[in-house]
Structures are given as C-alpha cells and as structure tokens.
Amino acid sequence: MTSYLTSKTSSRQFRRAIERGIMEREVNISSVLLLVFLPILRISANVEVDALYIFKTNMEDPNNVLQSWDPTFANPCTWFHVTCNLNNSVSRVDLANAALSGQLVPQLGLLKSLLYLELHHNNISGQIPFELGSLSSLVSLDLYQNSLTGPIPDTFSRLSKLRILRLNNNNLTGVIPMSLTNLPSLQVLDLSSNRLSGRVPDNGSFLRFTPLSFANNLDLYGPVAGCPCADSLPFSPPPPLPLPIFSQG
Amino acid sequence: MLTKAMLLPKSHLSLISFIFFLTSSCFSPTSAQQLKEVEALLKWKTSFAEQNQSILSSWKPFPTNTTTTTPSPCNWFAIFCDLTGSVVKINLTNAAIKGTLDAFEFSSFPNLTHLDLHNNFLYGSIPSQISNLSRLTLLNLNSNQLTGFIPREVGTLKSLNILILANNHLSGLIPSTLRNLTNLSILFFGNNRLSGSIPSGLGELKSLTELRLNLNNLTGHIPSSLGNLTGLKVLSLYGNQLSGTLPPEINKLTNLTLFFLSNNSISGSLPENICHGGILEDFCASNNLFTGTVPKGLKNCTSLTRLRLDRNQLTGNIHEDFGIYPVADYIDLSYNNFYGKISPDWGKCKLLTSLKISNNFITGNIPPEIGDSTLLHLLDFSSNNLTGEIPRELGKLNSLFNLSLSSNRLSGSVPPEIGLLLELSYLNLADNDLRGGIPEEIGVCFKLLYLNLSRNYFTQRIPFQIGNLVSLQVVLDLSRNALSGEIPFQLGNLVKLEILDLSRNNLSGSIPSNFDKMESLRFVDLSYNELVGPIPDNKALQEASIEALRNNKDLCGNIIGLKNCSNSRRNEDKDETSTAILISTVVLGTLLVISVLIGVFVSIIRRERKPKEMCYKNHTMGICLPYGVTTEN
Question: By Cβ atoms counted within 10 A, which residue in A76, B102, B253, B427 is the most buried?
C-alpha cells in the first residue's frame, strides 16, 4: 500500500488512478478492464464523464483530438470538442473529420441533454448501438461517411426531437425501420450510399423526402426509392465534404 | 523439550513455555478462527440480494466429512490470507455485488487489514461494528450506494492508512472522532451528501497527504487547523457550499500539488504564499467570491499545469501579476475585474492549449507573440477593451479550433492569415471596429461550424468563398455591417446551416433562388438591406415573419407584410407597362433569333474548340471552385 504514498509515476496518472480506486494499474490496462466490465464500471461521479470516456477508450485517435478528455474532471465541459449547456450537461459532441477509428459504445445513449452528435467523416466501424435511441434531446445525428455496418436501429423512432438524420456513405444493411416515419420533426434524411434493402416508407414524415435520400443502396424499392440518380448532383443530401483542399505543410 | 527445560532456571522455563504457547497458536491456527472466517463470509454471501454470482462460485461450504483439511477461505476469489491462514485482505471489487454490510460479521475478522469493496452495488449503511476491524489499514467502499451516516466508530480504527468512502449517498456530518486517525494518509469522502462543516479535528491528522471532500453539501468556514496538515499534497473541497474566507494558515500548506476550491461561496483573498513549495500543479478556485489580487506566489509558480480563477471578483494588472508557465496547459482567468495589457510572455508558455481571459477590463493590443504558443487550441479574449489589429501571427496557431475576440475595440482588417487556421471550427469576431473586406481566405477553413462577424464595419461584397464552408452549421452571422453587392449564390451550398443572419447591411439584388437547397435552415434574417425579388422556395424563408424580411427594397412573396410577387406590377400603371413589355419582348425575341442563327453559323464554320472549364472540380461531388482561389498554405 506504500504505492499510494510514494509512487511518483506522472502525477496526473497517479491522480486518475486514485480517483478510480484502481491503484496499481496503468491507464492502458484499465482500458481493457473497462471493456470487460462495460455495463457496470463507474469511473467518476459524473455519468457523462464516464460515458464519453468509455467512448474515448474505444477509439483510435491518431491526431489526439481526445487528448483533453480527462476522466478525473468533475464534468466534461472543458474537454475540447464537447459543448455543455447552462446546466453543465453535454449538448454537442463535434468530432467530424477527426481521423477516428474504432466502434461506437452504448454508453453514448446516456447523454440525456445531447442535441448534436457530429461524428461524420471518420473511419468508425461496427454497428450503431441501439442505445442511441435513448438520446431524448437529440436534434441532429450525423454519422455519415464512416464504415458503420449492421442495421439502422429501430429505436431511432424514439428520437422525438430529431430533425436531421444523416447515415449516408456507410455499409449499413437491413431495412429502413418503418417506425422512423413517426418522427414528428424529421426534416433532413440521408440514407444514400449504403447497402439497405426493402421497402422505402412513403408515409408520415417520409413524405417530404426525395429519391436522393435513398440512392445507391442494395435493394430498396417503392415509389420514393425512384430514380437511378447516377449522374445528377444531389440537391437534398449535402455533398460529402471534400478531403482537405490544401494539405498542411 | 520439557525435560531440557527442567534443567533451566525457573524464569527461563516460564518464558519458554510462554513462547511455546504463543508460537503454537500462531503457527497452527485454531480451526475455530478459520471456521469463523469461513462462516462469516458464507453468511455474508447468502445475504446478498442476488445470488447468481458466478464470480463467487469459489465461496462455498466445505463438505462436512473432511477430516484431513481444515476449511480455509484462502483460495477463494478475492480473499487473501497471511501465513497463519487467517484472512487479512478482502478485495471484492467491480463484482456487481448487490447487498448490504449488515450481515457482515466484522468481529470474525480480527486480522483483516484490507477491506476493499469498491465499485459494487452495496446499499444500506456502514455498521458501527466496523470498529471490530482493529487492524484495518485500508477501507475502500468507493462507488457503491451506501446511505446513512459515517459511523463515529470509524474513528477507533487507529491503524487506518487509507479511508475511501467516495461516490456513495452518505449523509450527515463528518464525525469529529476521525481526529484520532493519526496514521491516516488518504481520506476520500467526495461525491456524497455530507453536510455540516468540516470538523477542525481533521487538522490533527498529521499523516494526511490527500483530503478530498469535494461534491458534498458542506457548509461553514474552512477550519484554520487544516493549516497544520503540512504534509498535504491534495486538498479538494470543490462543489460544496463553503463560505467565509480562507484562513491564512492555509499558506502553510507548501506541499500542495492539487488545490481545488471551485464552486463554493468563499470570499476574501487567495492565499498569498500559494505555490511556495514550488510544486503546485493544479489550482482551481473558480466560481467563488474571491476578491483582491492574484497571490504573489502564483507569479513564479513554474510548476503550474492548470489554473482556473474564472468567475470571481479578482483584480490587478495581469501584465504584472502573472509570469511564465512553461508546463501550463489550461489557464482561465475569465469573468473577473483584471485590467492591464496581455503580456507577450503567454507566448512562452509552449504547452498552453487553452487561454481564456474573457469578460475582464483588459486593454492594449493582442501581442503577436501569442502566435508562438503553437499548441493553443482555444483562445478567448472576448468582452474586454482590446484595441489595435488582429495580429497576423495568430495564423501560426495551426491547432486553434476556437477563436473568440468578440466585444472588444479591435480595428483594422481581418488578416488573410486566418486561412491558415485549418482546424478552426468556432470563429467569433463580432462587435468590434473591424473594417475592410471579409478575407476570402476564410473559405478554406473547412471545419468551421460557427462564423460570427456581425456588428463591425465590414464593407465590399460577401466573399463567395464562404459558400465553400459546407460544414457551417450553427450560425453564419454577418449582420450589422456595411456589406454591399449581391448575396453570392454559393451560399446555397451551406446545406447544414441552421441560422443565417445577413440583416442590416447594404446587400442588393435578389435572394439567390438556390437557397431552396439550404434544407437545415431554421432561422433567417435578411431585414434592413436593399434586396429585391421573390423569396425562394425555402422552408425557413417561407415561414419567416415579416420582421426577418422588412426594410428591403422590393422583396415579394407569400408572407404577411410582403407584397405578392404577381401583384407587384399591378401597383403601377398597367396599360403603359404591359405595352412596354410587349414591345420589348418582340424586339428581344427578334434579336435572340438573329443571334442564335449567327451562333450556329459561326460554330459550323469554326469547328468549335472544347469549351474552357470554368471550374476546377477536384472534389468528389463536383463543387465548383472558380479560378482565383489561392492555394498557398
């Protein structure tokens, strides 16, 4: 137990270890532990710190965009690329174009005040956790231009505040959940360039979408699925963001 | 042995037999003791609310017929014994145990030194019988759901070295009996519901190195006796309702590396001799009622990595009162009454990633030397009295993603070096005296989410290159300037933009019809310009109120307060206009036919060359970038 008192590994690491009550472990090993004990491990007093930190440990981050994400802080509001509201609760996560790879974690669904989840233009793989359907405040979900697989969770029908849903340019499979048509505020939808199949809903909020939202999939059919759309510049989905025009020296 | 002993003097005999008795009980442990420990552990396990714990499968009763082996829990999961086979350590952590400590027979574990049950779902209270663990050196109940008071009896555990009860729902007072724990090195009670004041008896814990009472409901003053804890390395009191002033005895704590006072109601001055030991790393006193100047001790505190003094009423000349911090990462002095000029020495803080001095009374220029601190990610000098120009050297900050200089009196033009900030996602220069044109170089900051240049004196046209900022999402605010010319149609590419404010300028021409592409727009304001023509077919525009469109030259559309587009001619002399239109149509039509014929004739003769590309399309979706965009870095 003298390790508590005399160990002088980096003081930040030491402090982090103390806060977690995991004394002897290096941060790397405890990341493995986090993955093993995912459903039950609580790192800090703050649910949002825990959730985002678990997200961080599941990401490969060659550009160190998540370097400021210190789990010993009382809240994540001073972490870069995290924005909080007046209640010190996370309202935005802006990690687009960040060269992140790895998989999304279910704990992201715990961010009850999250309005904008911007993870587009990365190399994120794996499936979309159905727990994202618990993001009751979410207004914009941008996961486009990644390598996500698996289905569109039908829990997305619970995202009652959702205005913008862009999942285009991934490898999503399966059908478009019919329940998405119940989303009352859905204004922008892009599911193009995936491997979706089945019928494209054409009722409810889906009435306002054009074939461009569904283009370039595996086997979608229905009146809204419409045209081949091979040549035209799409109007409604945003053009995929170009690679940096001018590379940095 | 006995016969030998009979030859010895009497005193030696009793001594030897005494030693023999002792050793026999040490090296052949009474099976009674071991049995007690086994039974106590099994009894506790049976009391758990959930019984299907595979992790405790080794905790099982021994078969009753064993005569050769005494039952021993020493091979059980999470149980560790000493050489005599008695349980000294229980390390049952991260095991999802759902139960209480009520059925834990503390008296059965006289040799227990370590009781570590952190990160489970233990509920109920901490029994006072815990005082039976007389040899306990470590008690860690971190991250459970324990309720009730901390029993006074914890103060009898004289050997305690480490006491961690953090992250529970404990309430009531911190018992003053804890003053007896003179061997205590670590005391963590953070994140509970403890109330009352910090007992002054804690000042007697002469071995204490870490005291963490953060995130509770503690009230009252910080006792001056804490100044006696000269070995203290960590003092964490943030997130309580502490009041009064800091006792001057706090100055004696020269061994502090971490000092957290944020989010309380502490007033008076900060300790003058802070960082006297030269090892203070992290000092946070934000969101309190501190007054006076920055302590002298902070000026030469070269060990600082993190300093948060924001949201107080501190004053003083920041040019004089701060020094150079070679390992500082995060500095926030915002929302105080600091004055003076920004020192160029901030540029010597080479590891700085965040520098915030907003909402103070800072004057003078932004020193160009700030550009030397190239790891800066966030720079916020907003809401001060800064003057002079934005230095070009800020272009060296190639990691900068957030730049806020709003609400100052900055003048001159925005340097084109702004185009070097390729990580920029938030740029706020609003409410200054900036002039000249908006630099077209801003168009290469492709990660911009928020751009606010409002309330300045910008002139000339809106650069069409802003249309390249396809990531713009939160807001594009160019309002309250003197911008002229037409709204570039390229702004229609901003399909993620939610708020567009171009109001109060001199913009002319019509609203580009391709604004119908801006599907994310929720709020638009184009009022107080010289715009003409129809409102495009865009939801936000069509649903806008007249307030957002008023005071233009000749806008028309289906909005209450605007004239209808088909009606706009009825207001004038119908007959005259319609005749004029008829004549001009005929004339134009003839001219058109003639020119078409000429064109066909010319093309047949000249075998036209390939048409010159007006755009270069080096993007996957063919966004048109006309020539003229600079490519330098």
Answer: A76
Does B631 sit within 8 Å of A246, measured CB to CB? yes
In the numeric block, the tokens 């440990």 are attached to A57
**Contact status, residue B371 vs residue B420, Cβ threshold 8 Å:** no
Q: Quick check: helix, strand or coil at residue B327?
A: coil
DSSP label at residue A190: E
The per-residue pLDDT of chain A, averaged, comes to 81
How far apart are alpha carbons B191 and B229 in whole angstroms? 22
Determine, for residues B191 and A45 on separate chains, whether the beta-carbon distance falls below 8 Å.
Answer: yes
Residues 6+ away with beta carbon under 8 Å from B577? B569
Which ranges of B315-381 does DSSP label H, i.e. alpha helix?
Answer: 318-321
Q: What is the pTM of this model?
A: 0.81
CA A204, CA B349: separation in Å to the nearest integer? 57
The pLDDT assigned to B49 comes to 85
| CB within 8 Å of B346: residues ≥ 6 apart | B352, B355, B367, B369, B370, B373
Do the bridges between strand A82-84 and strand A90-94 make them parallel or antiparallel, or are there none, so unpaired?
antiparallel
CB-nearest partner of A40 from B96, B398, B622: B96
Decide the pairing of beta strands B267-268 and B241-242: unpaired
d(CA B293, CA B340): 13
CA-based nearest distance B521→chain A, Å: 10
pLDDT tens digits, one per residue of B195-209: 999 999 999 999 999
Q: What is the pLDDT of residues B550-582, one digit of tens each?
A: 999 999 998 888 888 875 444 444 555 556 666
pLDDT tens across B295-332, in order? Answer: 999 999 999 999 999 999 999 999 999 999 999 999 99
- Which residues of B230-353 form beta strands (DSSP E)? 234-236, 241-242, 258-260, 267-268, 282-284, 289-290, 306-308, 315-317, 330-332, 337-341
Residue A197 to residue A152: CA distance in whole angstroms? 11
**Alpha-carbon separation of residue B146 from A46, B120, B156, B203, B344 (angstroms):** 17, 10, 20, 26, 52
The amino acid at residue B454 is S
Q: How far, in Å, are B280, B304, B379 from residue B327 at the CA level?
A: 12, 6, 17
Task: List, as one string, the DSSP characters of B523-587.
Answer: EEE--SSEEEEEPPS-HHHHT--GGGT-S-SEEESSSTTSBPTTTTTTTS-HHHHHHHHHHHHHH
Query: Tens digit of pLDDT for each residue in B603-630?
Result: 665 554 433 333 332 322 222 333 322 2
CA–CA separation, B454 vs B434, rounded Å?
A: 10
User: What angle do the packed helices A11-20 and A27-36 form, to 10 degrees?
Assistant: 30
Task: Give yes or no for B377 touching A (CB within 8 A).
Answer: yes
Q: Is B115 exposed, middle or buried (0-12, 13-18, 19+ CB in 10 A)?
A: buried
- H/E run at residue B199: none
Residues B303/B323, Cβ–Cβ less than 8 Å: no
Amino acid letter for position A153: P
Read off the pLDDT band of B32 (50, 70, 90).
confident
CA-to-CA distance for B454 and B440, rounded, in angstroms?
16
Q: Give B517's contacts in chain A (Cβ within 8 Å).
A: 235-236
Residue contact B164–A187, C-beta within 8 A:
no
Nearest by CB: A188 against B210, B470, B519? B519
Other beta carbons less than 10 A from residue B292's beta carbon: 15
Cβ-based burial of B316 (10 A; exposed 0-12, middle 13-18, buried ≥19): middle
ipTM of the complex: 0.81
Hey, how many other C-beta atoms are within 10 angstroms of the C-beta on A239? 15
Q: With residue B451 as reference, give the H or E element that holds it.
A: strand B450-452
- Residues paired with B411 in a beta bridge: B389
Residue B300 to residue B323: CA distance in whole angstroms: 6
Q: Nearest CA of chain A to the CA of B314: how many Å?
A: 21
